[in-house]
Write a structure and sequence with these properties.
Radius of gyration: 47 Å
Structural class: mainly alpha
Helix content: over 70%
Oligomer: single chain
Number of helices: 19
Largest sheet: none
Distance between the termini: 131 Å
Strand content: under 5%
Shape: flat
Length: about 600
């Protein structure tokens, strides 16, 4: 009698515990990168990502929808209360009041609109919120569960494959597995592969179905919502159109009342403004007169006590004086005083008096655009030439003697270009420059006729052009933002050349390496003196556009200066005493007392110090 055959191994031949441990082991190895996992198709990844984004969109839509419903509910409650208030108000209005019929009609329309709004709110909630919640709970959740089921079967597939691969490798060892064990592993792998493929198809179908249903189910609900919104807007429009006649009446009435009110208000404001401007302008007149005194005592004291703010304060003072058309007269008087007190033409305007400071700062402020238009193209050209390797150093002690000749040509050529640009710029020269130059020459020739050119040259070159050439990064605004050592040296040499030309001085033994430029000075002496003559020629009309309007000076500059004088009053008084101008102190004190404290900003620390 033959032996009974053994049944074929089933899935249970691989014990449940052994299978679970193997799957767990496979999962851990995959997480740490020690074992590969079956690759997920790119199309499936893209579709699942789209489903995730769809879920986020629907969740956001639900949140916004609920918020909209809540907001609409609050609006409805407010409208009901508002309608009741309107009704009570309309009942109190006289029958012949233009507002009475309009308010009654508005209340009627408001009630009708509230009904349409309530209908739309309910339809919106059912089509957007409820449908989105249902779609997430149904289609998206089913797709998610199908994906999870496939993920589990994929892990079982990877575990079975790993076990089978391990047995295949074991066949090459001294202890190969039994044919039955190998058969069981192959069987498990085949079953796991089939199960994984089936569940992948199910997951792929669920994800795809979800995306397809998005394109018709979700779209259909969106169309319903848009249709409901369209109906609501159309009904609301037709209802609101009933108010057209009443709105026109109210608009015409309101327009007329507004016109009447604006006319009355503008007249009142205009009269008040005129009065305030007159009072404000007169309020600071004594201070302006005191600042414009011939000795410039107050201007000097305010500046020297301003510390780091001296330049800012000086420009503010010049703006105030210029707005009151006092800058030119003050500078002219300063020039006259300077010439009368000087015994040597070589020292004219070489000091740092208040009049000289005013003249320098005023020309700098007045000529900002003129300076930039004249010098910036040439300064940029020098920067580019140095960047390309050009050198301007002519001192044999600082450069190879073989380079001096070429560098001297660069320096002579560039100096000539600057001179040509300055002389050719006469047409753009600000009118105040010419007025100042004319007065300067007229005063100088009375005592020093031989200095009629050098004084004008000192004014336009020493005080204006040469400082900007020497330090273009210090102008406001900067003509060049960055100046390195090579560029600085080139600008120094150019500035020296032009300054000596303006002064009519040749280079001597102090700088023998510059003596070769004396021919340049001699050749251009008549040329630059012609420019000085042109600059100092009489001017028919001395009227010009001031730096600051009188209104701006009164509204901004003077109150700020007033505040600064009060803050530095003790320092200003000491400065006046040091300059033997004590008689100005009581005048200033009385003037400040009459101005009062309106518009003054005082540092509390300064008040504490004054009390001590």
């Amino acid at each position: 009698m033959s032996a009974k055959p053994k049944p074929a191994p089933t899935n249970m031949s691989w014990g449940g515990i052994d299978k679970g441990l193997n799957i767990f082991k496979t999962s851990l190895l995959q997480k740490v990168g020690r074992q590969d996992r079956k690759e997920v198709p790119q199309e499936f990844l893209q579709q699942t990502e789209r489903v995730k984004q769809l879920k986020k969109l629907l969740v956001k839509l639900i949140e916004e929808g609920k918020h909209f419903v809540k907001t609409t509910q609050g609006l409805s409650e407010s409208n009901i209360q508002f309608g009741q208030s309107l009704k009570e108000w309309s009942e109190k209005l006289p029958q012949n009041d233009v507002l009475a019929p309009a308010v009654a009609k508005f209340n009627e329309v408001q009630a009708e609109l509230e009904k349409y709004r309530s209908d739309f709110k309910e339809q919106f909630f059912s089509t957007i919120v409820l449908f989105s919640e249902k779609f997430i709970a149904g289609e998206i959740t089913e797709a998610k569960e199908a994906k999870k089921a496939w993920a589990r079967s994929r892990l079982e597939h990877d575990a079975a494959k790993a076990k089978m691969d391990g047995m295949v490798k074991q066949t090459q060892t001294s202890k190969p597995p039994s044919p039955m064990d190998l058969f069981v592993a192959q069987t498990h792998y085949a079953l796991a592969r089939k199960k994984e493929a089936q569940r992948f198809e199910i997951a792929m179908d669920k994800v795809g179905d979800t995306l397809w249903k998005r394109d018709f189910d979700v779209l259909q609900e969106a169309v319903k919502c848009i249709t409901a919104l369209h109906d609501f807007v159309l009904k609301a429009y037709n209802t609101l159109y009933q108010l057209e006649e009443y709105i026109k009446q109210l608009r015409d009435h309101a327009r007329q009342r507004r016109t009447d009110f604006q006319a009355l208000r503008e007249k009142r404001l205009y009269e008040r403004k005129l009065k305030e401007q007159e009072e404000f302008a007169n309020r600071y007149s004594p201070l302006v007169e005191l600042m414009s005194a011939e000795d410039l005592a107050i201007v000097n004291a305010v500046c020297v006590t301003a510390g780091s703010e001296q330049e800012v304060i000086l420009e503010s003072l010049i703006s105030i004086l210029d707005a009151h058309k006092m800058t030119l007269p003050i500078i002219k008087q300063g020039i006259t005083n300077e010439v009368s007190k000087t015994s040597n033409a070589g020292t004219l305007f070489r000091g740092n008096t208040m009049a000289t400071k005013l003249m320098t700062a005023w020309t700098r402020m007045t000529g900002r655009a003129y300076l930039a238009n004249t010098l910036k193209p040439l300064l940029d050209q020098v920067v580019n030439r140095i960047a390309q390797g050009a050198d301007f150093e002519v001192d044999p002690a600082k450069v190879s003697p073989t380079s001096v000749a070429a560098n001297m040509d660069n320096l002579r050529e560039t100096s000539a270009q600057f001179l040509q640009a300055i002389v050719s710029s006469f047409g753009e020269c600000p009118l105040p420059f010419r007025v100042m130059a004319n007065h300067l020459r007229n005063e100088v020739v009375k005592s020093f006729p031989e200095a009629k050119h050098t004084t004008v040259g000192g004014f336009i070159f020493l005080r204006f052009f040469c400082p900007a050439i020497l330090s273009p990064d210090s102008t406001s605004p900067p003509l060049i933002t960055k100046v390195d050592n090579n560029l600085r040296r080139a600008l120094i040499l150019i500035s020296k050349t032009l300054q000596n030309l303006a002064n009519g001085l040749e280079f001597g033994i102090k700088e023998p390496f510059m003596q070769e430029l004396n021919s340049f000075i001699r050749d251009n002496k008549a040329y630059v003196e012609g420019f000085f003559d042109q600059l100092a020629a009489p001017v028919d009309n001395e009227e010009y556009q001031p730096l600051c309007s009188r209104e701006t000076a009164i509204a901004k500059e003077l109150p700020a200066l007033h505040s600064k004088i009060v803050q530095n009053l003790e320092k200003i008084a000491k400065s006046l005493s040091q300059y033997k101008q004590e008689e100005t102190i009581p005048i200033l004190a009385v003037l400040l007392a009459e101005l009062g404290e309106e518009g003054i900003t005082v540092n509390p620390d300064s008040l504490k110090k004054s009390k001590k």
